[in-house]
Amino acid sequence: MFPTHIAISHDGVGLRPPTVPRDSGGAVRTNTESIMRPHGHPPGAAMPRHDAVEPPLRAERGRPLAIRIGKRLRGVLDRLIAASSLVPNDPVLDVRDFAWTAPLRENWRAIRDEALGVALQGDAAPSLATISPDHRAIARVGQWKSFFLSGYGCAIDENIARCPATAAAVARIPGINTALFSILAPGTHIPDHRGVTKGLLTCHLGLIVPRDGDVRMRIGDRIVRWAEGETLVFDDTYNHEVWNDTSGTRVVLLIQFARPLRRPGRIVADLVLRLIRRSAFVQETRDNILSWNETIKKTSF
Q1: Fewest 10 Å CB contacts: which of 107, 120, 190, 198?
Q2: Chain center to CA of 262
Q3: In angstroms, rounded to a whole number, what is the distance separating the alpha carbons of residues 222 and 230?
Q4: SS3 state at 196
Q5: How far apart are CA 205 and CA 224, in angstroms?
Q6: What are the backbone dihedrals phi and psi of residue 81, each rounded to the nearest 5 degrees, phi first?
Q7: Residues 265, 80: contact at Cβ < 8 Å?
């Protein structure tokens, strides 16, 4: 049965009553079982401040020409893909249109336990700003961390082996492209940004959602909030931004999967994804993750 307590609002002021409109696709709030503090931050201590004046965020300069050309062309390519979509082109989609999300919800506790036991231990999850030069425009080191199982089809075998329940759940998803634990530190704001291609959709499974403040995401003109054990499906090519206005760490399983498409959009999307996978955007990040894991292994003894 589809859940009956919706936690999605359009005004960002509070939770709506417990109803489930057909077009929701929002996350459903359940009782939280834990609120994570930053690693090494003792309970009761003052939380770190994020309102100090800091230099503006900037992507790394001198990125490869292919990445710069791709950003200029993606508007045209996205319109071609959208015209062939078999699902709505809305910012937030109905999770009931994606039957494979049900097993994720059913197994969320086992997935959360692996996030707690692996991804949130020590320095297992690097900052996106550390491993991905293209993410330095939207997140500072320490604010947004990711523990990758795979990215654009590039498997991180060591991480997969450490999270067998999560890996098994993800392997059953049609058109799976990327899977990772996305970890957002207290007080973090991820500014307005957009994804790389309309050929992919994004699913979040809520694992740890603090309750002592507001943790939310704006996608286009929609405001959504996560809930533990519930899924949210959205199109990240709409401009979106994220706030964690709590003293705890928000953790979700982030999945990117192929948008259901007819031809010619499917042909275009597949070509775009092949080019992205071969680009520095993916290859540098994969190499940096592998280097990070090797460094952690050497320093853990």
Answers
A1: 107
A2: 26
A3: 18
A4: coil
A5: 13
A6: -70, -45
A7: yes
pLDDT digits (tens, 9 = 90+) for 271-284: 999 999 998 889 99
**Cα separations (Å) of 103 from 64, 90, 107, 110, 261?**
40, 24, 6, 11, 23
Which two tokens mark 252?
A: 């979700």
> Which residue segments constitute the domains of the chain, with CATH numbers given?
26-35+68-299 (2.60.120.330)
Ranges assigned E (strand) in the chain: 8-9, 92-93, 144-151, 154-155, 176-184, 189-193, 200-208, 214-219, 222-225, 231-234, 240-245, 250-258
Strand ranges of the sheet holding 200-208, from the earlier edge strand across to the other edge: 92-93, 231-234, 200-208, 250-258, 176-184, 144-151, 154-155
Predicted confidence (pLDDT) per residue in 231-267, tens digit: 999 999 999 999 999 999 999 999 999 999 999 999 9
With a threshold of 0.90, does the pTM exceed it? no
DSSP label at 281?
Answer: H
Measured CA to CA, the distance from residue 244 to residue 216 in angstroms comes to 7
Pick from 69, 95, 91: which is nearest to 82 by CA? 91
Both tokens assigned to 206: 């809520």
